[in-house]
Amino acid sequence: MSDAAALPGQPRGTVVSGPATARAVNVLAPNPSAMTLDGTNTWIVSEPDSDLAVVIDPGPLDDGHLRHVVDIAAELGKRVALTLLTHGHPDHAEGAARFAELTGTHVRALDPALRLGDEGLSAGQVVTVGGLELRVVATPGHTSDSLSFHLPADGAVLTGDTILGRGTTMVAHPDGRLGDYLDSLRRLRSLTVDDGVHTVLPGHGPVLEDAQGAVEFYLAHRASRLAQVETAVENGYTTAQEVVAHVYADVDRSLWPAAELSVRAQLEYLRGHDLI
Ligand SMILES: [Zn+2]
């Protein structure tokens, strides 16, 4: 979900279903909205010479979309062998149980309530399917259960809602926490600086080919919003709603409820650091 899809100055690329890297193919779900941008990106990931694939974020409970994902995998000569979730928001995870039924796969996620099958998923694990290697990276902040998946062979990282292809994301207070989110962005920056990651495969919006630039932009954006919120409080705006109306005046009003959650997360962070 995005809290600022309409941020001025943001490029508006288009999202199309199809291959994004040598190993990752996007199947765009038909659920566009202000919060989901073009819709949810459902990722089919596999080694080029393997007939086994991993699907990351089946998306909403939309039978047509879920069957389409299976069909696209089949057209690629692949059988879906495992389903992974970046986090539990319904636009990513609601269709997971039905998708698992269609494919006979297990579902692995950080949140035990989302799992189907015996195996969980935790930071630092390496998931291997048909020679494909995905490294699990903890990226809490958008939600407490948010994970990213590092695909080293393609120099790519699948970020779910932690980094979007357009605009910026929300910190879904109280489950999502700003301190965690900033740590997660720094973790992703280190992947781009130290581990050769150059491509972001986001949960919504277009693929980003300058991963480090995207992370730096997100860190700068968060610092800027935080300073704006701090100043707003110093100027007497006390409630989260007042701060939103003041600080997020440039953002479409349909996104204000999401912005309010981000503001609550920012107020909690500022209070926790004795800054307000
Ligand atoms: Zn989300």
Characteristics of this structure?
276 residues, alpha/beta, Metallo-beta-lactamase, Chain A, 6-stranded mixed sheet, 5-stranded mixed sheet, 11 strands, 33% helix, 18% strand, globular, disordered N terminus, binds zinc ion
Q: So, the CATH homologous superfamily?
A: Ribonuclease Z/Hydroxyacylglutathione hydrolase-like
Shape-level CATH architecture? 4-Layer Sandwich
What is the CATH fold-level name? Metallo-beta-lactamase, Chain A
The distinct ligands, each listed once, are: zinc ion
> Helix and strand string, N-terminal first?
EEEEHEHHEEEEEHEHHH
**DSSP strand tally:** 11
Question: How far is the first residue's CA from the last residue's CA?
Answer: 28 Å
Number of helices: 7
The low-confidence runs, each spanning 5 or more residues with pLDDT under 50, are 1-12
Mean pLDDT, to the nearest integer, reads 93
Strand content: 15-25%
Overall structural class, as computed from helix and strand content, comes to alpha/beta
Domain module count: 1
> How much is the radius of gyration in Å?
18 Å
Give the CATH level 1 class: Alpha Beta
Roughly how much helix do the residues carry, as a percent range? 25-40%
Going across the biggest sheet, name each strand in turn. Answer: 1-2-3-4-5-6
Q: Biggest sheet: strands, sense, closure? A: 6 strands, mixed
The 3D shape can be described as: globular
